Amino acid sequence: MPLNTRPIAINIAVIFFFSLSFVGWIRGLSPFTCCKRAVGGALLAYLAAILAVKIINAILINIIITRQLNEQKENSSGDGN
């Protein structure tokens, strides 16, 4: 079963947004600068998370298909004996 891409990416982006905002605040940056950097970082994290989840889904689907094919081969070879 593939993972849902969008909710995972949104959660990661929100975590990055608040993390970067907090780091900017601690470093003494102006609120506007913190906001710009946090939004930019969250956008990059969102895109990276989408890409990562799609890669994981492709790997999982490939494993499932391979496993199903192996089971079918075992079942068909077992019927003839």
Give structural notes.
- With about 80 residues, the protein is an all-alpha fold.
- The protein has one domain (about 5-80).
- The chain is about 90% helix and about 0% strand.
- The protein has two helices and no strands.
- It has helices at about 5-25, 30-80.
- Helix 1 runs antiparallel to helix 2.
- The model has no long low-confidence stretch (mean pLDDT about 90).
Mean pLDDT: 92
Helix content: over 70%
CA-CA gap between termini: 34 Å
Bin the strand percentage: under 5%
Any idea what the shape is? rod-shaped
Number of strands: 0
For the record, the count of structural domains works out to: 1
Provide the descriptors you would attach to this structure in a database record:
0% strand; mainly alpha; 81 residues
Q: Gist?
A:
This protein has 81 residues and is mainly alpha-helical. Helices cover 88% and strands 0% of the residues.
